[in-house]
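Hi there. Long-time user, first ticket. I'm pasting a complex I've been working with (about 763 residues overall). I'd like to know whether the download I got is complete or cut off, because the file seemed smaller than I expected. Thanks.
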Amino acid sequence: MKSHLPRIAIASGFFTLLGALIFITIFIISEYNLLSKEHAGLFPQHHQFPLANCDVGSQKTVRTFPTGEKQAASVPVLTYHRILKESTISKQHYIDGEINPMIVTKEELEKHLKYLKENDFVTLTLAELYLFLLGEIDIPDKSVLLTFDDGYKDNFVEAYPLLKKYDFTAVNFVITGKVTKRVQPFKPKEVQYFSIKELSNACDVFDYQSHTYNYHRRENSVQNIEVSYLNSRTDDEVTKDIQKSIHNLNGENLAFAYPYGEYSPSTIKIVKDLGFKMAFTTEDRAASPDDHLYELPRFNILAATSFETFMEYVSN
Amino acid sequence: MVYLYITLVIFVAFIIFQSMYILIPLFKKENRHKIKRNYSFSVLVPAFNEGKVISQCISGFQQLNYSAAELIIINDGSTDDTLAILKQKLKLLPYKYYSMSAKLKHNHIIKVYESSIFPNIYVIDKLQGGKADALNAGINFSVNEVVITLDADSILDQNSLLEMNAAFQDFDTIACGGNVLIAQAFNGEMDNLKPTFKISGIIRYQFLQYLTAFYLHKRAQASLRTISVIAGAFGAFRKEVLVDINGFRNTIGEDMDITLKLHLWIKDNGGHKRISFVPTAMCYTECPTTLIDLFKQRVRWQKAFIDCLIYYRRFYFVRLSKRFSIFFLLDQFIIGTLNAFPVVLMPLLLIFHKGHYILFLLFGTSAVLLFMYQSITTIYVSSVHGIKFSKVDIFRILLFLPIEIFVFRLVNLSFVIYGTLTYFYQPQKWNKVERSGDLDKMNVKIT
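Hi, the file is complete. Here it is re-exported in full:
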């Protein structure tokens, strides 16, 4: 028996190593969704994001806020795009010597969130905002709606942990065709978008809504000015594109955000006809029940937006 | 995507094979059969320009503690002083030999000699015909029951034939592989050799590789009946079977070829006969000491493998058992050969295909860890079989492992690739490795 000890020790060592390797392999494969079939080009229009375990925006329960406090007359809706750590910003993020205006640093975002937390702000859900705009519920004076546009991967890597830390929720307007099936390693220098796994992992904080399927683009119009696809393409084409995004989002169509904030009366009709309850533009105002539901204003938070401006926005 | 699944399947197969190669040898018991009879042996040594090493080989034979054996050296048209050395050392006298029943075909024999001072040593001087041809001539000449094939640069261990005899007590065993060790890695007297790791890197690599190949792989393969090559350096065969399968085929890798032929013969004869491996039957062989010689040797081995792979293509799963076919095609061809291409091309693949680098990294790390663990198992299993390293040497081995994996294995893989590719336009061309004659200067002392 004694002579078997080293053999058994070596064999157990081997099984331990093997077990560890198998565990790590399975972990990495599932973490990066490596076995899912990556699509060439856009996210397949007939596929859906696996968000079965998520509360989508239109299903979220509406909180009853304590009465007696000062009630809000309007709500500031803030828009962020890319969120990057200061240390990861490099020359790729500069355009003509100026930092890309769509980038807000993680450090700056944290300052914002900290400010909101310390001043007892409540982050609304879309459903709550909707009922408020209809005049059906009252909400605290210190309410805010956070939105992120386009569905960048850095929203998951950098913004999501911060939002979680401060216990806030936000809306992410996703260009659904850009979503990947596999998780890509995070490269701050590149423009990367959410993967389905990340969508599902972050759905406790983010509520995903449509920002078109692949129409977040511009082209030259007859007058040779750059026009958003939503305005340059036919109504039929635009409808089809947005329909695809709704399908990707499992039929979710509570709110829409116009790319570049550009829209026309016919865009509003399309969005309405597709069942959306409201749509956002990029006008720098707070939203109130007086606003048209399909032309809701949002404060755009840009690289150059100072902290003072931010405080002004939310104090309205 | 398909490639990803293929990669995964190959990787899983690799892990399964590695597990077998670690676990089976660890727990396998080598049963020594009761000696009921003593077989007579003929040791065949084909010699083409082996003047530098042949004397050592003869001395090894003379130290055997097994008397029922003859040594037959076949001078295959050497152009150096091999024959002169033999004549001088053995005091050769002409021996009358009439090939009564030329069972196997081979090139013309010029003359046969017999040593006048040592019993049972013969020299066949023939026209050059290649190693297989020389062996066939030796088989024809031999009258004994078991044929040993031995390379001229190899020295038999004193107990080697005694151990082979024990292995052949099992009537179902038709052939046995001997345990080939690296001569340069042993110190001391022939009856008391001690392994050492105070040797150059290239010899260290081969030493570890041979220990792993023989103590782990061959022992596991013997249990599973999937031995794919009885090393040409030291093998043993029942003569009647050799004659039955028409001897050796003249090809670049006659040792793998004869092993495959034996597998066919086993299957044709009911499947219960077996090829064994005898770890206790040892010989010490001189290994290449320079990179260029190692390159020549490995390219030749690889060409030999590809040659057999193609030559026996119709027989997999038909006249070769399923298990053997799986081992040969999956472990040796796909994992051993095909896999070399992506591994060596990995840096290029990573540049063009960034997305998968995590998986590559994962597989790479896993392979490295498994190889290291395998080497550690090798050290343990070798020590159980009497190859005991000093503590300092074990420390040296552990320090050497990263170099072994990241330098020597990768270099070897490039040889495998070169051999595979060049096979297709110069299949039979092979450069014989020059004997360094290090056996003289070597640590093994023959007294």
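A couple of notes from our side: Chain B has 14 helices and 13 strands. Chain B touches chain A through 20 residues (CB under 8 Å).
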